[in-house]
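ESCALATION

Customer reports they have been waiting on this structure for their group meeting. Please prioritize. Original submission:
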Amino acid sequence: MVRVHNFSAGPAALPESVLERARAEMLDYGSSGMSVMEMSHRSGVFVEIASRAEANLRDLLKIGEDYYVLFLQGGATAQFSAFPMNLASPEDSIDYVSTGSWSQKAIAECSKYCHANVIASSIETGFDRVPEEADWSLGSNSQFVHICSNETIGGVQFKEFPSLDKILIADMSSELLSRQININDFGLIYAGAQKNIGPAGLTIVIVRKDLCSMARPETPAVFNYRAQAEADSMLNTPPTYSWYLAGLVFEWLLELGGLDAVEKINNEKAQNLYDAIEASDFYDSPVDPRYRSTMNVPFKLKDESLDEAFLREAEQIGLTNLKGHRSVGGMRASIYNGVSAGAVHALLDFMKEFETKYG
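Update from on-call: job pushed to the front of the queue and completed.
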């Protein structure tokens, strides 16, 4: 078996050691005589798996007891609707900073439930940056500000988070667990798992407990934060195998040395790739250098007629999923936690060889 270097934006590469452990435990977890995916979520064995995963996630992110940690379904897209139903009435406003496609989708969903007030946007520059905080037009009747901390498609990232008198909400789907953050800066964080956390099917919600008493009566029970917290995220059958695999990823991160260690690794991977792009007249980054993502690196060939050849030849040597999103074109290398430094070096070697051949 030969494993490829997978640069997919999601579902994304998982650490090989995690996959190896899951394989070893596939048929018989802990001498239970069954796979985790066959277990009742009410069983003592699975409750222990779930509790350990939550404890390790709290350890990694230094999450205090004043926050609920929920393991839900529906993806981050479901949270675009869930959090307005939990936190706002139909008459309320939520401020949004729009930095790309996922911000736009969140705004569109929120507008179905309350007023979505766009206080800043980088659409006029092609979503190549985060708007300067000094230019944000904060709403006078909004309690919350929503950001997408890392735009997967455009490769734009908040390097620092705003310090506001309002409560910060963040979609962190493509960067949660890639760097250390201060949880206390946020009222709510949500993230789909399929980037840095685990396989698709699981969504992490970290929400301040004092915000969980405002859900509308019509909020579906499975999206009601307090109801799910009181049921230990098991109001209905949770995505048990995805939860288990996420727990293995949390253990792997702790073994690496936690988020300080993984942040250093991620910064080095991204810097090496950006340095190579900057040093070349053949490749180009469309993102303002101040806001370039460490997770998703979009780049373009100066001669777009070579795009197909680039992708084809990369695929032939095991460098996969490098095609940029259809809305922006070009290339994109997603270099999440599960993508090794060796994979990035293999990509850099190929880029150099391709430039020598066609440049």
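Sent to customer with the following note: The mean pLDDT is 97.
Escalation resolved.
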